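the two lines:
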Amino acid sequence: MDHLAVLPIILPMFCGALLLLMGPRRLQLRRRLGLLATLLQLPLAMLLMGQASAGVQVYAAGNWLPPFGIILVVDHLAALMLLVSAVLAAAAMLYAVRGSDALGAHFHALFQFQLMGINGAFLTGDLFNLFVFFEILLIASYALLLHGAGSARVRSGLHYVLLNLFGSALFLIAVGTLYGVTGTLNMADLSQRVAQLPPADVPLVGTAAMLLLVVFGLKAAVFPLYFWLPRAYAAATPPVAALFAIMTKVGIYSILRVYLQVFGETAAGPLAQLANTWLWPAGLLTMLLGSLGALAASTLNGLVAYLLLVSVGTLLAGVALHSQAALVGSLYYLVHSTWICGALFLLAGVLSDCRGRRFVGRLVPGPALPRPMLLSGLFFLAAISVIGLPPLSGFVGKLLLLRAAGTGVAAAWFYGLLLGSGLLAIVTLSRAGSTLFWRIDAAAAPGQALDRVCLLAASSLLLCSLLLVVFAEPLLGYLDATATQLLEPAAYTRQVLEGGRP
Amino acid sequence: MELLYALTLGVLTMSGVYLLLRARTFPVVVGLTLISYAVNLFLFAMGRLHTGMPPVIGQVAEHTDPLPQALVLTAIVIGFGMTAFSLVLALRARGELDNDHVDGKGGQ
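prediction for all of em together
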């Protein structure tokens, strides 16, 4: 059997354990090991993407065949998400080794455990392990969020932890109900059972599915479950906030996986596409409220956190449109928004350092910045990409989504809100940019010197936004195959249930 | 037995939700613990309630489903760790913010 599929989970697990054993000393060695382990994820994700293009790969742990054993499934969607998280993590790690990892004791070990949880959630083929990997990534994220402490972090951390603990309880109730009714937790097997459900069991399974939607909505930060996000993300250190940009996408990934593949077209009666009626208004409202929140944000980090919310809303509305073209657009937008929000968080960190402790990311006139042309140029590029102006990837993503929306009342809402949120983002970012770069308080003491490596980390993610445009053609081909696979769950189910056989 | 079991779950969840809605960290943590008890019992019941049926093949004529028991074990371990973490965090918040309100403010 090919063991490549288990490496994205095993590698960070062992590196994390090793880093934990190394204790608080030998920072340089830990940095090197952490950076190496994170960078290794990149070729691994690319190899797996190549494998997934050839067909769905199933890794049966301990050779226990599906639907009984624990399986990892490498398909188009999982491999894509692995690559997205690997690129983001590499940039965040590059930023972190320049000093923000030294603020607390176990940053590198926690970072690896977080990666293990994220990768595991993407790869797992059954619902209970999705829960387990959610918990792994959550407990690592609790500690990473509090990394470097400070009272703002403790306060926002408390909300985050308590809400997610309650979310886990709901997740278990939903998983328990699904198991009690269908007798399986393997997602492929579950989709077959859901298709042949006796009518008496339909309401119970529907209840469990809606509970799962609440849990995933909490992770993805959908209206009305997003109130924890802006404060938590704005308080985290820049590399942690950048890495957390993928965490909301884990929720969206789960929504795609469960509601398109398990409760997809083939599901019994009212269960087919039951999430769409809720995702549509929730996505549109998240978009609107995220834009308004960004308008009111008083710090740069808070502003980026709200922009992340806008991207979540856009994605969910795109998914709820439920067509091949809309799904391709959403997946493209998912890749783009994850990387560009990560870039913005890192850039906000660089700017905050340059402005010194007194001003940090607050949007008030501050000291003159070193290398103003370079910094403002990068900020401008990031801004036009996140707003969705040509020539960067945001434009392509939004164009694909708008084209997929078609005509009619729903499209009118979508057009209005997507373009309106773009306009609000222009207003917000131009106000933030002019405050940061043009309104200089001459009396203010300058902050730290510009850190080139941190800037490199932020600009490498920006470069990815450009690469997304340059290589749009092959990427869209891959995304098209992904969308086809998501919309035709029967083929996925067959391949997973047969794929484990030697 | 089913009725008693369901009532127990209901009372545990109800008390848990009530405590969760209190704005002080200690009741909130206790509330989360009660809810996780209820969830564990619920998961266990998903293998159906039986007596005298071990989850082992070959020992008795009928055996019960072992999977919910494995799930409950995992859930207990995770819940235990999470509760410990939230307690430490609550203590930290008490020290750092000088106050046990979940928002870090509110009338003392």
